[in-house]
């Protein structure tokens, strides 16, 4: 393990004194960004120690793209063609002996809910973002949604088959968060991607996540083995570490129309589609959670979610969201005897105060409540599963509501 | 005008070699972030020239918060209590003779639509975010949604009365964007806030925006004069510059139920509420735009939007979204004679190819199409206006679709 002191380009922040823009001029050359223009890539350098494996040769940090025969769009995107170690714009860098990725993000004002804590949706978005930025910095990213050059040559795209997220605590507005992500092997033809979300200030772990990915032929829509060409690209990035301890995976039951909560006729909107023209992952979760009554969210916080993906959801699908509480699971977890009152473990039908016995009450309040979910695409003749889900909840405590009135 | 070379704390990036986390340990102290730990606030410093007015005294940059009697949440948020000049986490800094704010952001993977360009919604989100970060860095931010300490002492909150955004070009996935924002006086008791969104690489202006704000008493819900205490806080930040040339403001007509497009029974969801427990601005725009047929969006790009806010929208409101094309406006703008075919200027009812005359066709294709919008809260006895809107559109050209198949 070698440790270098390496000079990197600073944030390309420009400081100008005044009149930096003119409301009439659309020509950037006519903008008066002239006085004290500090473009860090030229002058503002600083020493930063980067931890690199001794076997690796550092490629140049800037310019990140070889400026030959690039389209205008490629220039605007500036996707690196070689491995980079630091991305000052995304506040990302390569860690973990040169194969992991770490990015610092600030929870933005529009990424939090009414209680000023980040939503699960935004955590999922940030997982996607850091995964793509990891590939971005690796120099392997082709012009697609995380596909490598070798994958594009083989008409392959990534397909997620499973995602599991555990949230211990939600970050709050303005909080600085560090997200680590890395990849590993999953069987012979799959890839595992894990994440760890931490407080930048204290190192406290907010969330852990793991996912498994396989490759699909973009044209035949069939799953594919991992070609050797692609394995050669990504296998050097594989590490063993796991964010979530591997347990015997809990099977997610398939719900049917008899589920307690059913919302029908969900139609993807334009704004729900991602770059792959598919309904985004985050929308799946929103559809799943919106089956639960609002009141439930006031008293409960999502502490875990597992998603098993079955099929793509396109813009023309009509979706049904089913949800069923796993009452017995909650009871078994606390070692309490079974109770047949269905509403009891639902968490919102009865206020906890009316339950007898302090021990019972306090045990119950700590009980993670579980729900099983299913999204199906309703066809004329049959329905097709899109994604099965399991959510785990905990009672909100006052201390988890930092901005309560 | 003085120019300082000033040492600031670098991005607090930590580099560790391996095993930086253990899936079983939730104690941050037990994480093995031990090997090469570079916390910039201590060791990684770099010189950066910051342009400051000579009359200003620099307050310390780090630590940004005086660490006395802070709640846990205040420590996590770390809102500055004194004016700061640089925010390395948000990639923001004070410009414009010490009163403007500039932030560098990268367009994220989940902030773009299927065509890989940023959505209008995300541009509006970034305007909100940079405005709040401007107040954040100013040292004036109290524990609220942009309210200063003086405002909180007077039970005042900000209320936006008008927002106008012009988008020349939408940034694309991965593009680095610089957003400038600054404030000015608006009449005796109001404030104007402007923004300029530029390509970081070329300086090309992507978007301009302006808004006007007044103060409301949080308890009485009545508009308020600006107290001298508050004026003393914010007036030193006022500058004259305007992002959008002030024209005689176009009056936005009030639509009624006879509007061409009407979507009824819109209900705010939990995820639509912001920190003020109100439906977020972005949701307003989505409700407005969703009245237009999907096909329209395939061929048209929003180039401008003006919003006139009339009343808050809360979680219990049932909303109706009305929309009417301004056909005649389109004709007048191009100097063409009026045409009574209502469908012609609608932009999606007829393909442009069937229109006669090359000159006419090319003029029409460049014609900004305009729509008038209205959101109303439907009450039992009467409806109340929430926001009036005007949108301006242009035909999509191939060059504006960088990722078309």
UniProtKB/TrEMBL annotation, chains A, B:
Signal peptide annotation: none
Glycoprotein as UniProt keyword: no
Pfam family, one: Acyl-ACP_TE
Compartmental location: Plastid, Chloroplast
Domain Acyl-ACP thioesterase-like C-terminal per the UniProt entry, residue ranges: 258-341
GO (cellular component) term, any one: chloroplast
E.C. code: 3.1.2.-
CDD domains, per the entry: 4HBT
Keywords of the record: Chloroplast, Fatty acid biosynthesis, Fatty acid metabolism, Hydrolase, Lipid biosynthesis, Lipid metabolism, Plastid, Transit peptide
Enzyme class: hydrolase
GO MF annotations, alphabetized: acyl carrier activity; fatty acyl-[ACP] hydrolase activity
Domain Acyl-ACP thioesterase N-terminal hotdog intervals: 100-234
Superkingdom of origin organism: Eukaryota
PANTHER family associated with the record: ACYL-[ACYL-CARRIER-PROTEIN] HYDROLASE (PTHR31727:SF10), OLEOYL-ACYL CARRIER PROTEIN THIOESTERASE 1, CHLOROPLASTIC (PTHR31727)
Role this protein plays: Plays an essential role in chain termination during de novo fatty acid synthesis.
Entry's family note: Belongs to the acyl-ACP thioesterase family.
Protein name per Swiss-Prot or TrEMBL: Acyl-[acyl-carrier-protein] hydrolase
Species: Jatropha curcas (Barbados nut)
């Amino acid at each position: 393990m070698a440790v270098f002191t390496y000079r990197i380009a600073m944030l390309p922040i420009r400081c100008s004194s005044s009149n930096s823009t003119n409301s009439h001029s659309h020509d950037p050359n006519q903008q008066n960004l002239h006085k004290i223009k500090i473009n860090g890539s030229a002058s503002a350098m600083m020493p930063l120690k980067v931890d690199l494996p001794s076997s690796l040769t550092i490629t140049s940090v800037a310019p990140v793209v070889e400026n030959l025969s690039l389209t205008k769009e490629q220039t605007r995107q500036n996707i690196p063609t070689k491995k980079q170690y630091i991305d000052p714009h995304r506040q990302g860098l390569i860690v973990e002996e040169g194969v992991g990725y770490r990015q610092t993000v600030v929870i933005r004002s529009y990424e939090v809910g009414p209680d000023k804590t980040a939503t699960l949706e935004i955590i999922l978005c940030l997982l996607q973002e850091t995964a793509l930025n990891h590939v971005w910095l690796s120099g392997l990213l082709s012009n697609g949604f995380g596909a490598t050059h070798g994958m594009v040559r083989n008409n392959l795209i990534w397909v997620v088959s499973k995602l599991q997220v555990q949230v211990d605590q939600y970050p709050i507005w303005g909080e600085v968060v560090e997200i680590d992500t890395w990849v590993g092997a999953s069987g012979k033809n799959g890839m595992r991607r894990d994440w760890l979300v931490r407080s930048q200030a204290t190192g406290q772990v907010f969330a852990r996540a793991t996912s498994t990915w396989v490759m699909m032929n973009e044209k035949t829509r069939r799953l594919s083995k991992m070609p050797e060409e692609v394995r050669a690209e990504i296998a050097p990035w594989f590490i063993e570490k796991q964010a979530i301890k591997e347990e015997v995976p809990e099977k997610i039951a398939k719900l049917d129309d008899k589920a307690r909560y059913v919302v029908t006729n969900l139609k993807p909107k334009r704004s729900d589609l991602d770059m792959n023209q598919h309904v985004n992952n985050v929308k799946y979760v929103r559809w799943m959670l919106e089956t639960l009554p609002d009141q439930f969210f006031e008293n409960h916080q999502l502490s875990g979610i597992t998603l098993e993906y079955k099929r793509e959801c396109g813009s023309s699908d009509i979706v049904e969201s089913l949800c069923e509480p796993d009452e017995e699971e909650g009871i078994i977890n606390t070692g309490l005897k079974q109770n047949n009152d269905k509403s009891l473990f639902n968490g919102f039908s009865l206020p906890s105060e009316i339950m007898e016995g302090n021990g019972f009450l306090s045990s119950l309040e700590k009980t993670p409540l579980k729900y099983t979910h299913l999204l199906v695409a309703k066809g004329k003749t049959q329905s097709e599963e899109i994604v099965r889900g399991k959510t785990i909840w905990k009672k909100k405590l006052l201390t988890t509501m930092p901005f309560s009135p």
